[in-house]
Write a structure and sequence with these properties.
Keywords: ATP-binding, Kinase, Membrane, Nucleotide-binding, Phosphoprotein, Transferase, Transmembrane, Transmembrane helix, Two-component regulatory system. This protein has about 475 residues and is α/β, with parallel strands linked by helices. The chain is built from 13 helices and 9 strands.
Length: about 475
């Protein structure tokens, strides 16, 4: 089968390898020349001031201890000139202080100083029977630098540093110093490039692993914080949505009554003027339009409710008259509840009646959930001046757990105090909650018996030409 002429021929493997080899130096140069977050100190984002100063302290200790040791080693043991030994030791050690904020730039200086030192030791008198190309002090300083580098730079940069270190060691084999002959026999030079190459890889890998683990933990904490904020926001929105659905039922009932009364007024009341009939018709039309608009706006909420509960809610909204049934279900769940209601029936606004029921429902659900078996007292009373309704739910500390609580048949919304506050705010009331000294909990709500006065609507100016 022949290949279609429109498709390009596959590139030979040899050519791909050669192209990768040619691009490797460029990639190494890019990675080694592009530091990550230059100028930002290590541990600069931690809260503890002591931890923020720790990298500077460690770098200072390494610099102070390695500088005189390196000068002594190069001048006395390897036989380099004193001035040259001091210059090389300073170039190899001093950049460790820079590594706290700019580790990649410090690596360039220290790596170049180590190369120059290795070349200077080729003709040194004391190189026989010693380590080359990297003296012991150079290895210690280089590994300390690798720790700072691995905690800051990205993985590709660390690989480039590691490969460059190995490449320098391989090239050093071509210029290994000649072993002089001593009275005890021929001298021997200990090659240290393999040791440094292996140790560098181990330190870089361990440091990168610790950094990635710390980054993952930090991102997890940030995500948990965001999730907690989103969960609280979603809870608030769900409770407001539930209130909107229930309020729709209450308002829709009243709007329907207004429509029926306005439509039937001309038939129920005889002898009214034609202008009054037209006004009643206008009122009925406006009420129908408002009701239709409300149903359109809340249609999405109804559809979500149908998906969640298997269909729209058909039952009337509950009030304080259904509290005995709610208490009965709570008692079956294993919570002894004492209910106290006013003797006479209190005329309540539908929103207030519904809010009082929901507050008691949520408070009892919280008792079942968090203090199973705790004796609870529920009371609904009016204030002395008869202007506000007081809803009080107080539970004692829960007894020692003997058996798991029975699930409550009439559960609350699951939104706890957030839902209570939203409902109290809806009717312009007040809510007071908090733990009791004996270990119990108290929920007290004050709800107005009459709705807050609506803002006055200014009347249109009277036409001066009318009679």
């Amino acid at each position: 089968m022949t290949r279609p002429s429109s498709l390009p021929a596959p590139e030979p493997a040899r050519r791909r390898v050669l192209r990768a080899v040619r691009q490797a130096p460029h990639l190494l140069a890019v990675e080694l020349g592009t530091p990550t977050e230059p100028g930002t100190p290590l541990f600069g984002s931690v809260r503890s001031a002591w931890l923020r100063r720790l990298p500077y302290l460690v770098a200072f200790v390494f610099a102070v201890s390695l500088l005189p040791t390196t000068i002594t080693l190069l001048s006395h043991d390897y036989g380099l000139d004193g001035g040259l030994s001091g210059a090389l030791a300073t170039a190899q050690v001093a950049p460790l202080l820079l590594a706290v904020t700019r580790p990649l730039q410090a690596w360039w200086v220290i790596f170049a100083a180590d190369i120059i030192c290795a070349l200077a030791l080729i003709h040194a008198d004391g190189v026989a029977d010693r380590s080359w190309p990297w003296p012991p002090t150079a290895i210690v300083g280089y590994l300390a630098l690798m720790v700072a580098l691995s905690l800051r730079e990205r993985g590709r940069t660390l690989i480039a540093v590691w490969l460059t270190t190995g490449l320098a060691g391989i090239l050093s084999e071509a210029v290994t110093p000649a072993t002089p002959v001593t009275p005890d026999g021929p001298g021997r030079i200990t090659s240290t490039w393999v040791l440094l190459f292996v140790l560098t890889g181990v330190v870089l890998m361990m440091g990168a692993t610790l950094r990635e683990r710390g980054d993952a933990r930090r991102k997890l904490i940030e995500q948990e914080t965001i999730s907690e904020a989103e969960r609280a926001r979603r809870t608030l929105l769900e409770e407001r949505t539930r209130i909107a659905r229930e309020l729709h039922d209450v308002v829709a009932h009243h709007m329907s009554v207004i429509t029926v009364q306005a439509d039937s007024a001309p038939y129920r009341i005889g002898g009214i003027p034609r202008e009054a009939e037209e006004e009643f018709g206008s009122i009925a039309a406006t009420a129908r339009e408002s009701l239709a608009e409300m149903r359109r706006l809340l249609g999405v909420l109804r559809s979500e409710e149908a998906e969640r509960y298997g269909g729209p809610e058909k039952t009337p909204q509950p009030g304080i008259g259904m509290l005995p049934k709610l208490v009965e279900g709570t008692v079956r769940a294993g919570v002894p509840v004492e209910l106290s209601l006013p003797g006479d029936r209190i005329p309540l606004e539908p929103a207030v009646d519904l809010s009082a029921y929901r507050i008691v429902q949520e408070a009892l659900a919280n008792v079942v959930r968090h203090a199973p078996g705790a004796p609870t007292r529920v009371s609904v009373t009016t204030t002395a001046d008869g202007s506000r309704l007081t809803v009080l739910v107080v539970n004692s500390p829960p007894p020692a757990p003997s058996a798991p609580a029975v699930p409550l048949e009439t559960n609350g919304t699951g939104h706890g105090l957030i839902g209570m506050r939203e409902r109290v705010r809806l009717v312009d009331g007040s809510l007071d909650t908090g733990p009791l000294p004996d270990g119990g909990f108290r929920v007290a709500a004050q709800l107005p018996l009459s709705p807050p006065p609506a803002p006055a609507v200014p009347l249109p100016p009277k036409d001066s030409g009318s009679i």
